[in-house]
Design a protein that fits this description.
Layout (H helix, E strand, L loop, with lengths): L10 H4 L5 H31 L4 H12 L24 E2 L2 E2 H46 L1 H12 L17 H50 L5 H31 L6 E4 H18 L3 E6 L3 E4 L1 H17 L6 E9 L2 E8 L6 H5 L10 H7 L5 H11 L3 E5 L6 E8 L17 H7 L1
Helix pairs in contact: 2-4, 3-4, 6-7, 7-12, 8-9, 9-12
């Protein structure tokens, strides 16, 4: 994740196919062309079936073709015309007037249909060209936010995640996409910053014990007259440094495990907490701490080892950061659909600023004391991660009188139903005799 988000375009990207803008244009144009062609064909056949030619136009065509006067072909003058008398059929140039009239009507009808077909196709072609041009322009306008998103993504890198798209306009799908992209950039920026701080702090914490080990070994090797007591002191220092490194690695592994999906096993938070209380009782007694327990059943679902570490960290924090002769209370209970674990303790006053940062990894309110006791500032960070992995959360309260109060909330999970015991079946006579 430390690398740049930018990368040079590959050969396959340089040989990309049709753009979305061109595809939208082609699809819109083709659909319009198909719809227009269907309309033209449908209109042609509808007109063809319903078209009638006025008789006056047919008489004008016949008069022009045979050199007659149109008045000679008026109804009642020309035999066979609609509305005229019914005298015997008149033949001109071997063709009857009735046939001439039919041919003239058919020619006029075919000519009108041909003009309709030609003009419709010309209009369809012109409108198709206009449609392609309009679709190209509209697609470009609609895809403009996509270009803004692409340009922003290309400018981003692991060291520059502060830029945002901030798209203006109506609340449509592209606006939602841009806002979602901005939210994702915000989360990435936070994750990158947290990762850098985590790596820097972890490197520093691991470097300290390694420096101690190297220093002790170098001092012992450089002194040819080193005594047994000095070697034993070096061994104790190296062992403490190794233990410190091991504790840090275990804490980091617990954090990594908490951030993955935990197992879903039915557990009682009260029983887990009771076992962890037993582990800190000896240290609490040595400090003269007064313990108040109120452990009521609190069934949850989760990973036993993670929940044990969560409860153990809260209890260790309550004991280590207490005052001699002080007190601490431990309580589990169920309220509604939630199971609660609450640990409160006396101790020095914690400022509101420090209380708000206690969940940060490697954060310590008193670094000198934390190093002396072997703390790394991971305890409450692990508690928060474990609670979040189990669908809950943790709250910290710093009372003005001093000390802390931590409360973990986890979803309640009633224990699974117990299967009914199998009913006793009567033994056959042979088995009854054998049993007796």
């Amino acid at each position: 994740m430390n690398g740049s988000l930018d990368h040079a375009p590959s050969a396959s990207q340089r040989r990309r196919g049709l753009t979305i803008r061109l595809k939208l244009t082609l699809w819109c144009g083709i659909l319009f062309l198909i719809a227009g062609a269907l309309v033209v064909v449908l209109n042609y056949f509808l007109v063809k079936d319903s078209m009638t030619v006025a008789p006056g136009k047919a008489r004008a065509v016949i008069a022009e073709r045979y050199g007659l006067r149109p008045s000679d072909l008026e109804p009642g003058v020309l035999p066979g015309m609609p509305g005229g008398p019914k005298p015997p059929e008149i033949i001109i140039n071997g063709v009857s007037m009735t046939r001439m009239l039919e041919e003239a009507l058919r020619e006029l009808r075919d000519e009108a249909l041909h003009q309709l077909w030609t003009n419709s196709l010309i209009a369809l072609a012109v409108m198709t060209v206009l449609m392609f041009a309009s679709a190209w322009w509209i697609a470009g306008r609609m895809l403009r936010p996509v270009h803004a998103i692409t340009s922003t993504a290309r400018r981003l890198s692991g060291s520059n995640l502060s830029e945002r798209i901030s798209l203006k306009g109506p609340r449509d799908e592209l606006k939602e996409l841009a806002d979602t992209f901005d939210d994702m950039l915000g989360r990435l920026d936070t994750a990158f910053t947290a990762q850098k701080e985590f790596v820097a702090n972890a490197s520093h914490e691991l470097r300290t014990p390694l420096t101690i080990i190297r220093t002790e070994i170098d001092v012992a090797l450089s002194d040819p007259d080193v005594s047994r007591e000095e070697l034993e002191e070096m061994g104790v220092a190296v062992t403490e440094a190794v233990d410190r490194s091991e504790n840090l690695i275990n804490g980091l592994l617990t954090l990594a495990q908490a951030e993955s999906a935990p197992a879903q096993t039915y557990l009682d938070l009260a029983q887990i907490t009771a076992k962890e209380v037993d582990l800190v009782t000896g240290e609490a007694d040595a400090l003269g701490l007064r313990l108040e327990l109120d452990l009521q059943p609190a069934p949850v679902k989760g990973e036993r080892s993670l929940l044990q570490r969560m409860a153990g960290n809260l209890l260790e924090n309550a004991v280590h950061h207490n005052t001699p002769g002080g007190w601490f209370t431990v309580m589990t209970r169920v309220v509604g659909d939630w199971a609660y674990l609450e640990v409160a303790n006396s101790g020095p006053v914690v400022s509101p600023e420090d209380a708000g940062r206690l969940f940060e990894r490697f954060y310590r309110t008193d670094r000198s004391r934390s190093r002396k006791t072997g703390g790394f500032g991971l305890g409450l960070a692990i508690v928060k991660s474990v609670a979040a992995a189990h669908g809950g959360w943790v709250e910290i309260d710093a009372p003005p009188a001093g000390g802390l109060r931590a409360r973990v909330s986890l979803p309640l999970a009633p224990p699974p139903p117990v299967p009914p015991a199998p009913s006793a079946q009567p033994l056959p006579p042979e088995d009854q005799r054998t049993a007796s």
